[in-house]
Each structure stands twice: as C-alpha cells, then as structure tokens.
Design goal:
By secondary structure, the protein is mostly helical. The chain contains 6 helices and no strands. 38% of the residues are buried.
Length: 244
C-alpha cells in the first residue's frame, strides 16, 4: 500500500525530530541540575549566601529539564495529530523556558564576581566565629570538616585562621584534626603545625575553583539548551500558522 502523504508531512516529520532533540536537551538540564546539587554543593555550602544562587539555579535547571522533556513529547503529539491547541501550548511554554534559561545563565555569570569579591572575608570571619571542632555535631562544623578532609586544606586562607578564633579559645588547639594529613596519628595534636602533619593551604581557592566550574557548567548548559530548543520553537510556530 502506498504511503499517504498529508499536507505539511515534511514539516511534521521535521518537528517530530526537533521535539526529540528538545526532550534530550531537557534530559541534559536534569543531569546538570543533579550534578551541581550533589557533586559540589556539599562543599561550597560553607560559602553561605555567596554560593546559594548556585543551588537555586541547579534546582531551577532540574525543574526546567523535567518540563522540557514533557513539552518535547507534547510537541510530538501535537505535530502528529495536527492539534493547533497542543502546538500553541507547547510554543508558549517553550518560549517561557527559553527566556528562563537565558536569565538563569545571565544571573549565574553576574553573581560570580560577587562571590570572588565578598565571599573570602565573609567566610573567614564566619569560620573564626562559628567553627567548633572536629567531633562537634553542628552542621557548620561538620560541613567544614568535610571540606578540609576532602579538599586537603585547612581554614579559609591558611592553617593559621584558627589562631585566636572561638575554636582555639574553647579547645586550646591552634587547628582542628580535619586539617591533618593523617587524622588518626598522635602527631595530629592541634599544636604541631609542621608541613608533614598539617595541610597549610587554605580552602578558599579550591572552593572558588569549584564554584567557577559549577557556574560555567550551569550557564553553558542553560545557554546550550536554549540554542538547541530554538529551532523546535520556530518549527512549532510555523506548523501552528500553516494549520490555521
């Protein structure tokens, strides 16, 4: 039996393909959001409000990704069934998603210089005031212990950050055990700060590097998704007009 060619068959096939690409861009956004939330968020959390925008944008990417996947399937359905209502619905929401993606990328890049300028001193003062010790159960101390152990660093600027801090006043130690290269050794006593015992490098440069990487990943992923989705948006509008 010969294949039946309906009007705009080529455009419908093209739009179905582009909707598949759109759905894949949604999957990328979901993966990007999850990566930022769980890969580096636990470490950069110690920067406080200076890095909070990254967590918010990663959640936004996750939500936008889920919506984009659904819109990709809805667009495919609208093209197949020649449903103008479905096509209009998909077009409207994809335009909104596109604008949000561009805005999110802009916000991330705009806040990065603020992190570099403000976060260092703010994080330094907060650490000296709020850090309690290696075995303390409070969230702030646990987060910093995780950072110093995993990144192999000590303090914000260097290992001397704890001198004169509330931590030293409470414990009498000049650095916490999480600064040690080998935490369980006898030499890790909170006083011996020789280079073979303690990580002397501060954590801020490493945290800033993670923050920059997350920022570029989020902004690049959002803009990339927007570029990928744009042809599908235009094809949806074109088929909607031609079906009118």
């Amino acid at each position: 039996m010969a294949e039946v060619h309906t009007p705009y068959a080529s455009l419908k096939k093209l739009l179905s393909f582009l909707n598949g690409i759109t759905a894949m861009s949604g999957v990328v956004l979901i993966g990007l959001g999850i990566h930022v939330m769980f890969r580096g968020a636990a470490l950069t959390r110690v920067l406080g409000l200076c890095s909070a925008y990254l967590h918010h944008v990663s959640y936004l990417c996750l939500v936008m990704g889920c919506i984009t996947v659904l819109l990709g399937f809805a667009g495919w359905y609208g093209a197949t069934k020649e449903s103008r209502g479905t096509l209009l619905f998909c077009f409207s929401f994809m335009v909104i998603i596109l604008l949000v993606e561009i805005t999110a990328a802009t916000v991330v890049l705009a806040f990065l210089p603020i992190v570099q300028e403000v976060a260092l001193e703010h994080t330094f003062v907060t650490l000296r005031k709020n850090y309690r010790g290696f075995n303390e159960p409070d969230d702030y101390s646990m987060e910093w212990n995780l950072v110093m152990e995993q990144l192999k660093c000590c303090g914000v600027k260097n290992h001397t950050d704890f001198s004169g801090s509330s931590f030293e006043m409470t414990t009498g130690h000049t650095y916490p055990r999480s600064c040690c290269k080998s935490i369980g050794t006898v030499a890790c006593d909170g006083r011996n700060a020789s280079t073979d015992i303690v990580h002397r490098e501060g954590c801020f440069p490493k945290l800033l590097k993670i923050t920059k990487t997350q920022s570029f990943n989020l902004s690049g992923g959002s803009l990339g998704a927007a570029v990928i989705q744009l042809p599908g948006i235009l094809a949806t509008l074109l088929l909607f007009v031609k079906l009118g």
